[in-house]
Design goal:
Number of helices: 0
Number of strands: 14
CATH topology of the largest domain: SH3 type barrels
CATH superfamily of the largest domain: SH3 Domains
Order of helices and strands: EEEEEEEEEEEEEE
Strand content: 35-45%
Shape: elongated
Helix content: under 10%
Radius of gyration: 17 Å
Strand order of the largest sheet: 13-12-11-8-14
CATH class of the largest domain: Mainly Beta
Number of domains: 2
Length: about 160
Amino acid sequence: MVIDGDDTSNRMRAGAGTNFAEVGRIPPGGEFLVLEGPECNQNFAWFRVDYDGLIGWTAEGEAVRYWLEVINPDGEVPTATPGAAECIATADGVINLRRGPGTNFNAAGQSAPGQQFVVVGFAENASGFTWYQFDNEFWGREDVVDLRGDCTGLPRVR
């Protein structure tokens, strides 16, 4: 959903970048379906979306402000249900998801506050941080997630 706060609509583009033609706009409060993404380009995370039958790419936000808010059809933030032997990471707030265990890896997008992920492994980087790999193949750093469930037997994956 486009955040309803400053009466600014979100541009939809023919491709994932500001150099692509504008194909439409999503008004504040407008809800859409994410078809693919994120795709990182020009310091933005882009999502291919369907807004009332119009298909295009829209940016998530900028460094200090987000234009989109994650919702599910039932209005809930996505959560994971822990199984018998699963480790669950809960985002402390909006966190940057990475394509590898460190800030030197490309951003893969961002989580919603409270979003949960199943943890499938961990790695320690040269900076001394532990990074957790989620079942969606993205990574989150130890100081921005809370762990619960059975996290004792996680494999070191890098």
